[in-house]
Every structure is written in structure tokens, then in C-alpha cells.
Amino acid sequence: MDPKSLLDALREAVSEGRTPGAAERLTLAVTEDPAVVRRAGTLLKGLAPDTAGLRPVRVALQGTGTLGALPHMLRASLVGGGMCPDIRTGEYGRFEMELATGAFAAPHGAGVADPGALPDAVVCLLAEEFFLPPVPEGRDIKEVTGHVENRLTELLDLVRSALGRTGATLVLHTVPLSRQVRNSFISVRGRAALAQTWHRLNAELLGLSAQESRVLCVDFDGALAHLPAPARDNRLHRYADMPYTDSALLLLAQEVRRVLQAKSGLSRKVLALDADNTLWGGVLGEVGAHGVQLGGLYPGNSYLALQQAASALRAQGVVLVLASKNDAEPVNEILTEHPDVRLRPDAFSVLAANWGAKAENLRAAAASLGLSTDAFVFMDDSPYEREHVRAELPEIAVLAADGDPAHLSDTLLRQGWFDVLELTEADHRRPALYRSRALRSEYSGEFTSSDDYLRALDIRLMAAEATAFTTGRIAQLAARTNQFNLTNIRFDEAATHTMRESADHLVACFSVEDRFGDEGPVGAAWVECGAEEWRVLNLVLSCRVLGRGVELAVTDWIFGRAAAAGARRITADFVPSAKNGMAADTWERAGLLPVDDAAPDGTRSFARALDALTPAAPDWITLTSRKKEDER
Question: Is 580:539 a contact under the CB 8 Å cutoff?
Fold first, then answer.
């Protein structure tokens, strides 16, 4: 999509009060022209905060200097990542005061923060001037490095003060040191000492992510090394205290988008790859398995690098799908026998080597995996195939594999479509789990009755109270689950940890096994536990286990725990979203009764006396339970 068409489409969507289309959003996410992104961000300022189909995110944007175009570029980048941002900017010159006092939590002029308007993230724009003495040039190098170290300590104190005043995630970045400051020291050893201190500063910022669970730091300085444009415009810096050029600010906005996209659970899960001139060079049907370019010298080493990159993604939880217009037999031959292939047949959870339309094959793959097509990234060298998939499935992120094959790996990885905040054991196991799901789908064809098939699966559900080991996975489920997410409250790791330690709450994790293997943690529940009444704050289940009645075994377990604790009544809500309609009747199937008519937004409340409930779980599920003390 050309820039004019993109901007016209965004302008039209905003004026009509509707969500920009998936194609426009994906184009926006990968646009590298800062002028276009800046204009797009200005247009999108009129986007309603409750725009359907986008994940709301409130951002407090603070800066040690002039923010410039960053608010507009960040807004555009976040919309491109599937979010609807509400960005509040801090006042110029008040960076330290706002962090120290928590003023970023309330609109300017407000005495007390509105709990409903508290930020989800505080993004800090940092510049070298914050850390350097007012005039570093000509000073003794020890004085300069000592000043930098002191200012770093002050920043870390400010960050920790801010963390105590908000439940938001703080997003920081490493800071580049300008050429002018570096070159003002003519001593080679002095420059080395300054560089060492500056690297230590950036290392401390990066290390803060490991020390504080609500701090995330992006390597802006490292990313700038690959930016084919200057990071600073000396004239604008002197004239308006603008620390970075628009090109650099766009890069930072994209890095922050990757972080908040991962935090919001909007990362993609599936990589679908073409074969000819993507996984290897050449057309298999023309040159045969022995004639393709793979490994060795260029260009074969470029295709090998792409396979290695895809294999590394798979090891980190990305599900691989092959979508190739070829006969299945030669494709299987090359994947099985070629000595340089890094992706053998079992690396793919779905293998679609046929002559059907790729859009249809991707739809079928999504159905087989039990995932939505908006979880897919598709890479193909053919402009025709790419445009056909864009037209049929605009929600799929489409990557071009044509052009110089040396750029294939960078094209695959540079946008961070698959980023997660932290890898869990479930992430590592996901490709095998989804391959097992595809095998279950094939196995089901052997039965004439779905009940017989489900009994033959030998499904076992393990319910356990959350522990320090499962809290990260539970928070990830909250962020990434859409279809079976009953209230859409996405409790993050910090909130889940707090509830886990509270005597007035129960946080539970649910795992499933069957004859095809261990699915691992697939569900979670957050429950407020009163003396007389238990209230389910949210219940989520992975789409991998939907359709088996697992949710009813989960609700039986929750109700049983409530009764055992002496409660008399259970209450719960269902809050509709664009994707969770299939779970709308869950509480009624579990035995609860509607309290009153639905609210204007469709929210429905349910309740029932515990002694009036009977078990609802199907007889093909075996339920076992484990309490916290059993973990010790």
C-alpha cells in the first residue's frame, strides 16, 4: 500500500469512527518513512479510546528533553501492532519531578489519579544530557565519568520511586553517546575511559529488567547502529533541545511497540513458509532435490541461514507451517534426505504441499491448529501469492522473500512479530503441542461419535494453586488468550503474584494430558475469596483444549474449593469481546443463573448458591488437584 493510500484510509477510518483495517495496520507497523508515520500518528489522535478490535493501552510518555514527534510515531506504531493507545505526555523540564512524585499517573492539574486512567506503561525518552555534566568538554575525564555514574544512580532511584507509585510497566532504553562529546576528548585513554563508563551505564539500564519485574529496557543504542540515517540533527538539537532525529524516534517507537505488543499478548504464534526460493533456492519441480541451492556458498548459504533462523524461532515456541505449491512427495524427499536441510518434516506442525490456493491452505492450517489466522506470519517469494493472501486474509502479516536472498533472515526477524516478554517452559513445548493437536484432528476421523473420540483420548486435568514457578505462564495466558477469556481482565505477572500471596484470593493453574501427550498449563483462574461468597474475576483457557469440556471440569473444581472453604455462594461475569463469543454460555452450562439482564455493553452477571450446584464436567475427564503445600 502506497503512503497516500495508507493515510487516506486512516483518515477515512477515524472520520467514520471505525477501526483501521488489518491491511492498513500491518502496513503502518512496517512503514519506515518517518514523515508518513508522523502524519499517520497525527491522524490517529482522533481514534476513539474504545475502538473495537484493538487492545486498549494507556501510556504515560516522559522525556529528559523535547519529545518531538515521538508521541505521534508511538501512537501510529502501537495501532500498527493492534493496540488503541491513549498517550499522555509529561511536561517539558519536569522529568525527574514526575517520576519522583508519580505525577505521570494523573492528568495535569488533577490532584488525585483516576484509577480507571492509570497508565499501563510509562515510557521514558532518555538523552545523554541527563547523565553528562552541563559542559563536559574540557573537564577532567574522571570528573566526567564520576558525574555519569552519579546521575545513573539518581535515575535508578527515580525508577524505583516511580515503581512504588504505580502498577505500570516502565519502559526504558539504552542511550547513545554523541560523536561530538566523544571526540571532544583528545586523549585516547580518556575516550576509552568515557566509553567504558557509558557502556557500563547502558549495561546497568539493561540489567534493571532482570532486577525489577516491571521494568523493560530496549537496546536503542544497539539498534541505532543499523539505522541508515543520523541519530541526531545538531541544528534541531541546539534550536529545540531535540535529542534525536525523526528517523531515530521512529526506530525507538517501533522498539517500544515490540515491547508493548509482547506485554499485551499480541505476538504472533505461527510462521508459515513457502518452499521454492524461500526455504531453498530454485524450483523443486524443475531442478529436483539435488539441484536446489541450499548451504555452501552464496546464495545457498542465505537459504540455509533462513532455515536456521526459523529453527531457532521454533525452539523458542513459534509454530512452523509449510505452505508450498508442490507435489508432496518431492517436498518430503528434500526435507527428509537433503544433508543441509535444517527443518525436517517433524519441525512443521502442519505440512501443506499441494496445488491449492495458499490462502485456503493457511485457513485449513489455522483450523487444524485451533488458532485464528491473525496469529500467522506468512513468508513467500511470489508477489502474486503474497497479494492473494493479503486480499483473502488481510490479518496475516505477509513478508517478502524475493530480492537478494542475503536479506531473508533479517526480513523474517526485524519486526519482532514473535516477541514475548519472557520465555516459559510452555513456549519451548508449543510447537510439539500444536503438532500433537494436528495428530488429534487426524485421529478423530476414526470415530463415528465425538463422545467416543473424547473418551478414547483419556483426558486428565490437573488443577493446582499458582506457585512462583507457574505465575509467569499464568500471566502469559491472561495476556494472550482471546477466544476463551471470560472477562478480558488481563492480570499481569505483578498482579497475579500479589493475588497468589493474598489470603483473600485464589489463583489456579490448569494443565491437561491425554493419549497424545502433555499439553502443559492451558488455563488459569483468578478468584476473590470472601467468607460467604467467592467471585471469579476471570477464567481463561487456551484454544488448544477447547471443545473437550475442560472448562466444565475447571468450574467444578472452583466450586468445590469454594464449598470446602465454607462459602455459600459463587458469582461470576461474562464480558463480551470481538473474539470470545463462543464462551458466552460457559457459566450457564456450569450451572450458574443470570442475575439480571445484560448491561449495555453486553456484560452479564451470574450467581448461585453452592449447595444448589451439581457437577457439570463430562465423564471423559479425570480431575486431580494439588494445593500449594503439596509444592513444598
Answer: no
> Which residue is it, cell 487516506?
8
Written as nine digits, the cell of 143 is: 570528573
Cell numbers at 263, concatenated: 506485554
**pLDDT bucket at 286, cuts 50 / 70 / 90:** confident
Q: Which residue has the cell 469481546?
A: 577
Question: Would you give the DSSP letter of residue 610?
Answer: G
- CB under 8 Å to 25, separation ≥6 — which residues? 79, 80, 81, 82
- The per-residue DSSP string of 75-124 comes to HHHHHHTTEEEEEEEPPTT-HHHHHHHTGGGS-TT-SS--GGG--SEEEE
Across 394-545, the runs of DSSP E, i.e. the strands, are 397-400, 459-465, 505-514, 517-529, 533-541
Q: 568: helix, coil or strand?
A: coil
* Residue 632 in grid coordinates: 513444598
Residue ranges of E strands in 560-603: 569-574, 593-594
Q: How far is CA 61 from CA 108, 170, 403, in A?
A: 13, 10, 39
Q: How do residues 163-200 score in pLDDT, each as one tens digit?
A: 988 889 999 999 999 998 999 899 999 999 999 999 99
* Local structure of residue 281 (DSSP, 8 states): B
Mean pLDDT of the chain, nearest integer:
90
The lowest-confidence range among 119-133, 242-256, 303-317, 612-626 is 612-626
d(C-alpha 190, C-alpha 185), whole Å = 7
* Cβ(461)–Cβ(623) below 8 Å: yes
Axis-axis angle for helices 358-369, 383-392 (nearest 10)? 50
Q: Which of 561, 599, 396, 577 is nearest to 488 (CA)?
A: 577
Strand order in the sheet with 569-574: 593-594, 604-609, 569-574, 533-541, 517-529, 505-514, 459-465, 621-626
- What are the cell numbers at 244? 534525536
At 163, list the grid cell: 515503581
Q: How far apart are the first and last CA of the chain?
A: 57
User: Can you point out the beta strands (E) in 288-383?
Assistant: 319-325, 348-354, 376-380
Q: What is the DSSP letter of 596?
A: S
d(CA 389, CA 361): 10
Report the C-alpha gap between 13 and 188 in whole angstroms.
Answer: 56
Determine the residue type at 615.
P
Total number of residues shown for the chain: 632
In angstroms, what CA-CA distances link 449 with 269, 453, 461, 516? Answer: 31, 6, 22, 19
Q: In Å, how far from its chain's centre is CA 619?
A: 36
Largest CA distance in the chain: 85
Rounded Cα–Cα distance for residues 465 and 629 (Å)? 9
Element (H, E) at 154: helix 141-163
Q: Cα separation of 40 and 28, whole Å?
A: 8
Three-class SS state of 171: strand
The total of other beta-carbon atoms located within 10 Å of residue 186's CB is 7
Nearest alpha-carbon partner for 622 in 514, 544, 464:
514
Instruction: Reply yes or no on whether the pLDDT at 218 is more than 80.
Output: yes
